[in-house]
Amino acid sequence: MTDTRGSGGALAGVRVVDLSRVLAGPYCAQLLGDHGADVVKVEPPVGDLTRTWGPSRADGVSAYYAGLNRNKRHLVADLTRSEGRDLVLGLLADADVVVENFKPGTLERWGLAADDLMASLPRLVWCRVTAFGADDPLAGQPGYDAVIQAHAGLMHLNGDPQGPPTRWPVPIADLTTALHAFSGVLLALQERERSGRGQMVEISLYDAALSLLHPAAASYFMTGVPPSRLGSAHPDIAPCETFRSPLGELYVAAGSDRQFSVLVDVLGAPALAADPRFATNADRLRHRHELNAELAGLIGRLDPSTDIATELIARGVPASLVRPVEAVLAALELAERGMVAELDGLRMLGIPVHLSRTPGSIRTPPRAVGADVPREATPA
């Protein structure tokens, strides 16, 4: 991706103060920055905790931190001291958005209560990220992504049916929280155009994780049957499963009767489409194990020279070999589409939302703790 440090974006002119730490808040603020907002990240003197997670450069930018903190200026403020609080108050004086994820009561102890600041800065959009929200019995308690996955039932659904519950290997609760926070900020900024007033945007990791319980929650509400682990299978579609092929693990998702008919035709067993056990999706779900056995045999005996995934896709059946991450990130089309970028020697994922007139851009890399000089804020 071309370095477009001077370009605007859909959020050009929006000023954001990022007081958040770790993942959900910083990722939300990064998304705002990707689309042109002027984001100032304010860290404690020791830096964001994620600077210590995983491989790191000599300047204290870890790989984990780098994935969440581009397109930001990097300042330091000790909020337990008056000088640090004054710095933040100066930044807030001309800010449009603040993102924070402090435990309840922390900012109040430092004289930075949201209610007071929003009263004096009525256009300010305040984005608050918490673990469990304000009304949950666990309100105010810490909650990392894996704990939220367990608490919200996501972990219960993930893993082999005969195995233990398994953590999703990506921080799905944190990332989803960030996306909801991002959309909430945009909603509040849009509404401010009508009312002239900001508002509080609240999102918890727990609520965000609960929002991912589809179709498990919808099915349970309708039937009363508790959902269970299915491995890589789908609860409502068959076949939708991983099969071992001569070229590696193959995932096939034939969501319609037509797609199933094409699938078995490509596999050289068209009669299976007329088998009463497999005639409809409902039939295939009832006979899932018999169906999987039939397909496993057919796929396992394929000629190793047959690019079955490409053939199925070409005929309208969703399918893919299960690709390792390193192969995915090395694919040429990612760079061509801007989904792998490089800036100042640092490779990173790109911006997934592509706007035709005001595209996002990667302008500045993540930097060392306190690398930037505070800019004078406009008095309130």
Name a few traits of the molecule.
380 residues, alpha/beta, Rossmann fold, formyl-coa transferase, domain 3, 2 domains, six-stranded parallel sheet, three-stranded antiparallel sheet, 16 helices, 35% helix
Descriptive account of the structure:
With 380 residues, the chain is α/β, with parallel strands linked by helices. The protein has 2 domains: 15-212 and 332-349, Rossmann fold; 255-317, formyl-coa transferase, domain 3 (2-Layer Sandwich). The protein is 35% helix and 14% strand. It has 16 helices and 11 strands. The strands form 3 sheets. A 6-stranded parallel β-sheet has the order 3-2-1-4-5-6, with helices on both faces. It is elongated. Mean pLDDT is 94; it is low at 1-6.
End-to-end separation: 38 Å
Mean pLDDT over all positions: 94
What's the number of domains? 2
Largest beta sheet: what is the strand line-up?
3-2-1-4-5-6
Task: Summarize the amount of helix as a percent range.
Answer: 25-40%
Q: Roughly what fraction of the amino acids lie in strands?
A: 5-15%
Principal-axes geometry comes out as elongated
H/E element sequence: EHEHEHEHHEHHHEHHEEHHHHEHHEE
CATH superfamily of the largest domain: Crotonobetainyl-coa:carnitine coa-transferase, domain 1
Estimated radius of gyration: 25 Å
Query: Count the helices. How many?
Result: 16
Query: What do we call the CATH topology of the largest domain?
Result: Rossmann fold
Counted beta strands:
11
Largest sheet: 6 strands, parallel
Question: What is the level-2 CATH architecture name of the largest domain?
Answer: 3-Layer(aba) Sandwich
**SS class:** alpha/beta
The poorly predicted ranges are 1-6
